[in-house]
From TrEMBL:
GO molecular function: ATP binding; carbohydrate binding; transmembrane receptor protein serine/threonine kinase activity
Record's protein name: non-specific serine/threonine protein kinase
Species per Swiss-Prot/TrEMBL record: Solanum tuberosum (Potato)
Family: In the N-terminal section; belongs to the leguminous lectin family.
Residues annotated as transmembrane: 293-312
Residue span(s) of domain Protein kinase: 344-624
C-alpha cells in the first residue's frame, strides 16, 4: 500500500480526535452523580441541586468542572469564544437578611485558597484583591447593598470583574421582554430558578451577560454587553466554576444546572427535569434547633410509614436538615393551578374570606378535587415570610383540619391548595342559606366534637402550640360524611408579617374575639377557646353570634342564652328547626359549655382538653350558674360596639368581617410548651 493511502487512514483516525479537542463542552442537568469538584461547604443535595452555601454566616462554597478548559486558541494565542448557561436560585428569608452572592469564575486553579467570604465572595481577600497575578475573570451576582469601596450601590446587581471585586461594569438585574419590548426586573434572591447566559466572542472581545426567569426563553437583548479582552486576563490553564459566600447576612446559593461550550452556544438544559431550590425554614430565631428537630421528626414520620424506623433514628442523630426537602408540603406549579381553576374563573369561585378568594379546582395531574385559596398581598415581604411558615403548616395533619396539600407563589399572589370539602361551611348550613337541609342534633354534636378534637390537636397534640386565631362557623367546613373540619389555621400570621415587628395585628372576627384580646392583643389558646364557645352557642341555637337590629342595637347571642338560663329555661335558646328532636341533656350541656368557654375572664375558661372530656361524657360539666350569672350583659366590648355602628346596615356580613386592630401581639406559632 502506498503512503498516501496510510495518510488517509491516519487522517480518518485522527480527524475526530482533533475535532473533539476543539469542542470542549459539558452539560449538567442537575448534579446527581456528577464528578464536579467542591470545596468549602458546597454540597450536592439529594434532589441533585448543587448547594454552594447554606444560610450559615461567613461560609464559602466552591464548585468547579474537574477538567481545565482549553480556553486559548493555540493558533491565535487568544481566548476562544465560549458560551455558558446555568440555572441558579438564591434563597433568603427576607431581602434585608440575604447575602452575599455568588460568581461564575474562570481561574487558574479549581479553588481559591486564602479567599475570604462576605463581599469577597470567596474568590479573593483584601491582600490580593485586584492583583493582576490572580488571572481571574468573574461575573458576579450580588444581592447585598453597599459593596466595598462604594463600587456597588443597590444590591440585586450583576457585574463583570477582573482579578478582584471591582466591577468593570454592572447592571441591576433585569431582562428584556421581547413580547412587550419592556425591561423587567428580576429578584435574584426570591428562591425562584433564574437562567443566566454568559457569552464571550473571542473575535470582537465582547462579553454578554443575559438573565431571565426560568419560564422566559433567552432574551434577544443581553443585560450586559461589554468589551473585555480576556486574553491578557486568563492563564493557559483555566478552570470554570462557581464561588459563593455569606457574611453576617446569609442566603443559600444553588446552581441547578450548568452547560458550557467553546466556539458555540452552550447546550440547552432540560428545564423540566432540573431540581429546584427547596423551601427553607426560619433558622434565625433562637428556636432554630427546635425547629430543625421538628423537621427531622416529620420527615422521619414519612419514612416511618414506609417502614424504615431505623433510618428515623439515624436522621435524628445527624440532624439532616437537607432531607426534609422531600417537598413537604408540595410546591405546585402555577400553570397546574391555573388550569385546575380554569384560570381562576369567576364560576369556580366557592368563597371569599378575610384572606382571599377560594376557588374549586381539579388538578390536571391527577384529577383530584382541591380548594385553591388565592391570597393577594401588597406586601411581598409578608408573603415571603409567610412562605417560610407554610412548611410547618403543611405538616399539620388531622382528620378535623382542612389539610394544606401544598402551595405556590406567583408574583404577589400566594396560592394555598387545600383538601376540597364538598358540603360547604357550617354557618351556611346553620342559618345562612334557606336550604331544606336542617342539620340534625346528632350531626351537630358530631361536628362540635370534631372541631374540638381539631383544636385540641393544634393546641396540645402537635409539636408546637398553634393558635388558630380565627375559629368561627364560616371556617368550619362540612365534609362528605358530615364531619366538621376546621380551616384557615395559621393564616392569621399573614397579617403579622406585613407589618413591622413591633406592632402586629389583632386578627379575628367580630363576635368571636375574646375581650382580653382587644385589650392586650395577645392571642392565646384561651382566646381560641372563647371563639369555640361562641361556636357552640351558634350550633345549638342556629343563630349568628351577633345580630344587629335597627333600634334595638346589637343582639349578642351569649347574652340571650344567659337570659334564657337566668329565666330558668335554657332550652328556649335551642334552634327551633330541630323540632325538639334532640338529646335534652346534651343540648343543655353544650349551651352551658358554650357560655363557660366564652366567659369574659380567660381564667374561667376550660382548656380544649377539658372540653373534650365534657363532650365525651368522661367528666360532667360542673354547675356554673353562679359564675355565669355574674357575667351579666355588656359583653360587647368597646371595639366590637364601634364596629357594629360602622357596619350596622350590613347584618349578614358582620360576623364575616375580619377585624384588625393595630396592637402588640404574640405569634400564633409558639415554640415548645
Ligand atoms: C482558533 O481560531 C481560529 C480563527 O479564529 C479558528 O478558525 C479555530 O477554530 C480556533 N481553534 C480553536 C481550537 O478554537
Ligand atoms: C437526582 O436524584 C434525586 C433523588 O435520587 C431524584 O429525585 C432526581 O430526579 C434526580 N435528578 C436527576 C436530574 O436525575
Ligand atoms: C451549613 O453547613 C455546615 C456544614 O455542612 C453546617 O455545619 C451548618 O450547620 C449548616 N448551616 C445551616 C444553617 O444549615
Ligand atoms: C489576538 O489578539 C491580539 C491582541 O489581543 C490581536 O491583535 C489579534 O488580532 C488577535 N487574533 C485573532 C485571530 O483574533
Ligand atoms: C490572600 O490570598 C492569597 C492567595 O491565595 C494567600 O496567599 C494569602 O495568604 C491570603 N491572605 C490572607 C490575609 O488571608
Ligand atoms: C500582586 O501579587 C504578587 C504575587 O502574589 C505580589 O508580588 C505583588 O506585590 C502584588 N501586587 C500588588 C499591587 O499587591
Ligand atoms: C421578538 O419580537 C419580534 C417582534 O415582536 C418578533 O418578530 C421576533 O420573532 C421576536 N424574537 C424572538 C426571539 O422571540
Ligand atoms: C452580544 O450582544 C450583542 C448586542 O446584542 C450582539 O450583537 C452580539 O452578537 C452578542 N455576542 C454574543 C457572543 O452573544
Amino acid at each position: 500500500m502506498d503512503n498516501s493511502y496510510s495518510l488517509v487512514i491516519l487522517a480518518l483516525i485522527f480527524c475526530p480526535i482533533l475535532v473533539r479537542a476543539q469542542s470542549f463542552d459539558f452539560a449538567y442537568n442537575g448534579f446527581n452523580n456528577s464528578n464536579i469538584i467542591r470545596d468549602g461547604i458546597a454540597i450536592i443535595n439529594p434532589n441533585g441541586a448543587l448547594k454552594l452555601t447554606n444560610r450559615s454566616q461567613n461560609v464559602i462554597g466552591h464548585a468547579f468542572h474537574p477538567n481545565p478548559v482549553p480556553i486559548f486558541n493555540s493558533s491565535t494565542k487568544n481566548v476562544t469564544s465560549f458560551s455558558t448557561y446555568f440555572v441558579f436560585a438564591i434563597v433568603s428569608l427576607e431581602k434585608t437578611s440575604g447575602g452575599f452572592g455568588f460568581a461564575f469564575t474562570l481561574s487558574p486553579s479549581p479553588g481559591f485558597p486564602g479567599a475570604k467570604g462576605a463581599h469577597f465572595l470567596g474568590v479573593v481577600n483584601s491582600s490580593n484583591d485586584g492583583n493582576d497575578t490572580n488571572h481571574i475573570f468573574m461575573v458576579e451576582f450580588d444581592t447585598v447593598d453597599g459593596h466595598d469601596e462604594g463600587v456597588d450601590t443597590g444590591g440585586n446587581q450583576i457585574g463583570i470583574n477582573r482579578n478582584g471585586m471591582r466591577h468593570i461594569t454592572s447592571e441591576s438585574a433585569d431582562y428584556y421582554n421581547n413580547a412587550t419590548s419592556e425591561t423587567k426586573p428580576v429578584d435574584l434572591q426570591n428562591r425562584e430558578s433564574i437562567q443566566a447566559w454568559i457569552d464571550y466572542d473571542g473575535m470582537s472581545k465582547v462579553v454578554n451577560v443575559t438573565i431571565s426567569p426560568i419560564k422566559v426563553p433567552k432574551p434577544i437583548i443581553p443585560l450586559i454587553s461589554r468589551d473585555v479582552d480576556l486574553s491578557p486576563v486568563l492563564k493557559e490553564t483555566t478552570y470554570a466554576g462557581f464561588s459563593a459566600a455569606t457574611g453576617d447576612k446569609a442566603s443559600s446559593h444553588y446552581i441547578l444546572g450548568w452547560s458550557f461550550r467553546l466556539n458555540g452556544a452552550a447546550d440547552p438544559l432540560d428545564l423540566e427535569k432540573l431540581p429546584v431550590a427547596p423551601p427553607e425554614v426560619v433558622t434565625s430565631s433562637k428556636n432554630s434547633h427546635l425547629k430543625r428537630a421538628l423537621i427531622g421528626t416529620f420527615c422521619s414520620v414519612v419514612i416511618l410509614l414506609l417502614g424504615a424506623f431505623y433510618i428515623y433514628r439515624r436522621m435524628r442523630q445527624h440532624e439532616v436538615l437537607e432531607d426534609w426537602e422531600l417537598d413537604c408540603p408540595h410546591r405546585f406549579r402555577f400553570r397546574d393551578l391555573y388550569k385546575a381553576t380554569k384560570g381562576f374563573k369567576e364560576s369556580e369561585l366557592i368563597g371569599v374570606g378575610g384572606f382571599g378568594a377560594v376557588y374549586k379546582g381539579v388538578l390536571p395531574t391527577n384529577g383530584a378535587e382541591v380548594a385553591v385559596k388565592k391570597i393577594s398581598s401588597n406586601s411581598l415581604q409578608g408573603i415571603r415570610e409567610f412562605a417560610a411558615e407554610i412548611e410547618s403548616l403543611g405538616r399539620l395533619r388531622h382528620k378535623h383540619l382542612i389539610n394544606l396539600q401544598g402551595w405556590c407563589k406567583n408574583k404577589n399572589d400566594l396560592l394555598l391548595v387545600y383538601d376540597f370539602v364538598p358540603n360547604g361551611s357550617l354557618d351556611s348550613l346553620l342559618y345562612r342559606q334557606k336550604r331544606d337541609i336542617v342539620l340534625t342534633w346528632e350531626q351537630r354534636f358530631n361536628i362540635i366534637k370534631g372541631i374540638a378534637a381539631g383544636l385540641l390537636y393544634l393546641h396540645e397534640e402537635w409539636e408546637q402550640v398553634v393558635i388558630h386565631r380565627d375559629v368561627k362557623s364560616s371556617n368550619v367546613l362540612i365534609d362528605g360524611e358530615m364531619n366538621g373540619r376546621l380551616g384557615d389555621f395559621g393564616l392569621a400570621r399573614l397579617y403579622d408579617h406585613g407589618k413591622n415587628s413591633h406592632t402586629t395585628n389583632v386578627v379575628g372576627t367580630i363576635g368571636y374575639i375574646a375581650p382580653e384580646l382587644t385589650r392586650t392583643g395577645k392571642a392565646s389558646t384561651s382566646t381560641d377557646v372563647y371563639a369555640y364557645g361562641v361556636l357552640l352557642l351558634e350550633v345549638a341555637s342556629g343563630r349568628p353570634p351577633i345580630v344587629y337590629e335597627p333600634g334595638k342595637g346589637a343582639l349578642v347571642l351569649a347574652d340571650w342564652v344567659i337570659e334564657c338560663l337566668q329565666l330558668g329555661n335554657i332550652l328556649d335558646a335551642v334552634d327551633q328547626r330541630l323540632n325538639s328532636v334532640y338529646v335534652d341533656k346534651e343540648v343543655q350541656m353544650i349551651l352551658r359549655l358554650g357560655l363557660v368557654c366564652s366567659h369574659p375572664r380567660p381564667e374561667a375558661r376550660p382548656t380544649m382538653r377539658q372540653v373534650m372530656k365534657y363532650l365525651n361524657g368522661d367528666e360532667s360539666l360542673p354547675v356554673f350558674e353562679q359564675q355565669l350569672s355574674c357575667i351579666g350583659s355588656g359583653r360587647v366590648d368597646e371595639i366590637t360596639a364601634k364596629f357594629l355602628e360602622v357596619f350596622s346596615t350590613d347584618t349578614i356580613n358582620i360576623s364575616h368581617r375580619s377585624l384588625s386592630v393595630g396592637q402588640t401581639s404574640s405569634s400564633s406559632l409558639h415554640s415548645g410548651r
